[in-house]
Amino acid sequence: MTVSALFVRKDSIYKKLGIDCWDIERDALNWPGGNPVIAHPPCRAWGQLSHIANPRPGERELAFFAIDMIRKYGGVLEHPRASKLWPDHLPMPGKSDRFGGYSISVDQFWWGHKAKKSTLLYIVGCPIRELPVIPMRFDAIEYIVGSSLSSRRNRKKEITKKEREATPIEFAKWLIEVAMRCDVSHWT
User: Is the separation of the CB atoms in 80 and 110 below 8 Å?
Assistant: First the structure.
């Protein structure tokens, strides 16, 4: 089954995993549909610091496009835990919506991210009981996602912007497996 990854970085790990990738140059808004997706719409217009973010014109609306495609073709949307997409536009963990979609909370650290990176996933087409096993790690976290001030206060090293945005390879593989398990054909 083909899986497409929408709104990925130019240097996305998905490109090395043989996934149909749509980055800024290929423009995910031109994606023709027809198969499950993994969507990583830009988060700066939705995050905790959205009040000081400077998104490109129309960037905020990309999240709505991603949600529509997931509801139509199945798949998973990934966004930071503090994203304002929840609860106004997507169900909070423990709830579902009229599209059969639900959200879960994970931490990308479990899949090898250097820092704690709390993440919400919105999934349509794969029942929660059919999700692949979610790993957990309890070892010490040595890095943080944050400002230099917070890293001095916490005595932890700060990761780079590229590291903050990158998807760990094991998490990407897990998301691909989720998307491959999504089936919304009975809705069409």
Answer: no
Domain boundaries, the chain: 4-187
Helix (H) or strand (E) holding 38: strand 37-39
Q: How confident is the model over 71-122, as pLDDT tens digits?
A: 999 999 999 998 899 988 999 999 999 999 999 999 999 998 888 888 999 9
Mean pLDDT, the chain, integer: 88
Is 159 buried (19+), middle (13-18) or exposed (0-12) by CB count in 10 A?
buried
Round to whole Å and give the CA distance between 114 and 178.
23
Model pLDDT for residues 91-103, shown as the tens digit of each residue: 999 999 999 999 9
Tell whether omega for the bond before 87 is within 30 degrees of 0, i.e. cis. yes
DSSP letter string, 56-91: PTTTTTHHHHHHHHHHHH-EEEEEETT-TTTTTTSP
Considering only CA atoms, which of 69, 77, 161 is closest in space to residue 119?
A: 77
Angle at 4 between CA 128 and CA 186, to 5 degrees: 50
Angle at 96 between CA 91 and CA 101, to 5 degrees: 90
Query: Do residues 179 and 74 make contact, with C-beta atoms less than 8 angstroms apart?
Result: yes
